[in-house]
Design brief:
- By secondary structure, the protein is mostly helical.
- 44% of the residues lie in helices and 0% in strands.
- The chain is built from three helices and no strands.
- The radius of gyration is 25 Å and the shape is rod-shaped.
Length: 91
């Protein structure tokens, strides 16, 4: 067998350099990846294709950015001056 990572030929079950088994099936691309896939354990994520993992990482980073922006908005709102309710009623 040939190692798909380093190209070493003449191997039987595992690559001596990487230590990976050569008999396992490589993951296939999924049609779509959803954010809920991030909740899977490592063994579940190990069957994802590398491209699918990158797409999932992009989704997680996008969600993290939205959460961070919302947190900053809430912090700014807490520091803004309060409008007196009496002024609102009179106006």
């Amino acid at each position: 067998m040939i190692c798909s990572y380093c190209g070493t030929e003449g191997l039987e079950d595992s690559c001596s350099f990487y230590g990976t088994t050569l008999n396992i099936k490589r993951p296939k691309l999924k049609e779509f990846v959803v954010l809920e896939g991030v909740e899977k354990p490592f063994n579940g994520l190990a069957c994802f294709h590398t491209y699918d993992l990158l797409v999932l990482l992009r989704l997680v980073r996008k969600e993290r950015t939205k959460s961070y922006d919302l947190m900053l908005t809430l912090k700014k709102a807490g520091k803004s001056p309060q409008i007196d309710q009496a002024m609102v009623i009179r106006g």
